[in-house]
Amino acid sequence: MTLRRYAGITLIEVLVSLGIFSLLALSIAWILINSIRHNAILWEQLQTQNDGRRVLREVVDVARRAETSSVGSYPLATTTAYELALYANIDRDSFRERVRFFADTVSNTLRMGVIKPSGNPLTYNSANEIITVIAQSVVNDDLNRPIFTYFDDRYTGTQAPLSQPVSTTQVAVIRVQLELERNPTASPVPLRVETTVHVRNLKRN
């Protein structure tokens, strides 16, 4: 009597195949998830960089138009590491507004406050200041890095900035530097954007 051998797959072979398939599926899923996460971080950093550059353009545009206030005050009002206030006509009317850029260290934002002169005689009433947030995720204060540094009219790009407290009448060039970090757990270091602006319309003795 001849015994027949039946071709087939044993239970052990099925289990081994399932194990290999599961490992391959997990590996592919891990690669896809990390690729998506990496792309999301890159996109977020690109968006943060674009936001930072937009803010710098706004600060530069105002600073370049700084001029004597509508009541005769010097063009620059405040020149500290985390606050810059100046007078400029930002809405093309006959008045120069008091524009203030300042860091809110509680919410990690950069804000802009605008006061339009009013009354007779004209005054800049701080109660009328309109404040808007122009940048999020600003971590300069956490890193102990100033947002604003100042240079005199001998600026060449290599010398150290003026020491605080800075006299407003010394300033000819302003450097603006933002350290931005939306997600500290995702990005290895904060993203830095910076620019310098030569302030026009400053009278020198």
Describe the structure.
- The chain has one helix and eight strands; from the N terminus they run αββββββββ.
- With 205 residues, the protein is of the alpha+beta class.
- A five-stranded antiparallel β-sheet has the order 1-2-3-4-5, covered by helices on one side.
- The N and C termini lie far apart (122 Å).
- The relative contact order is 0.16.
Short description:
This protein is 26% helix and 25% strand.
Salient structural properties:
205 residues, 5-stranded antiparallel sheet, 3-stranded antiparallel sheet, 1 helix, 26% helix, elongated
Topology summary:
Layout: H1 11-64, E1 76-79, E2 83-88, E3 97-104, E4 109-115, E5 130-135, E6 148-151, E7 173-180, E8 191-198
Antiparallel strand pairs: 1-2, 2-3, 3-4, 4-5, 6-7, 7-8
How many helix segments? Answer: 1
Helices and strands, in order, run as: HEEEEEEEE
Tell me how many strands there are.
Answer: 8
Low-confidence runs of at least 5 consecutive residues = none
